[in-house]
Amino acid sequence: MISKPQEKYVLCLNNDKYPASLEVRKIYPYVPDPKAESHNQIRIIDESGEDYLYPSDLFIAIEVPLEAARTFTHGS
Q1: How crowded is residue 28: how many other Cβ atoms within 10 Å of its Cβ?
Q2: Residue 27 included in any domain
Q3: Which helix (H) or strand (E) holds 10?
Q4: Are 65 and 48 spatial neighbours (Cβ–Cβ below 8 Å)?
Q5: For residue 12, is it within any domain?
Q6: β-strand partners of 61
Q7: What pLDDT score was predicted for residue 5?
């Protein structure tokens, strides 16, 4: 894990059970939730714009360059 505070992102690998909420190959903001992670779940901000729990095996953590992360927070 990175020690300094910064936004974290995950890449969706599979949306078979959640096609309305997730897009495969899309990058989502990750919200730290140790309790959820202890149950193999991950909290992300999905297509609804709200944070929800999903099985962690649907995602992979990625590093996003600062310049790219700014576009996620400011929109397109």
Answers
A1: 21
A2: yes
A3: strand 8-12
A4: no
A5: yes
A6: 10
A7: 46
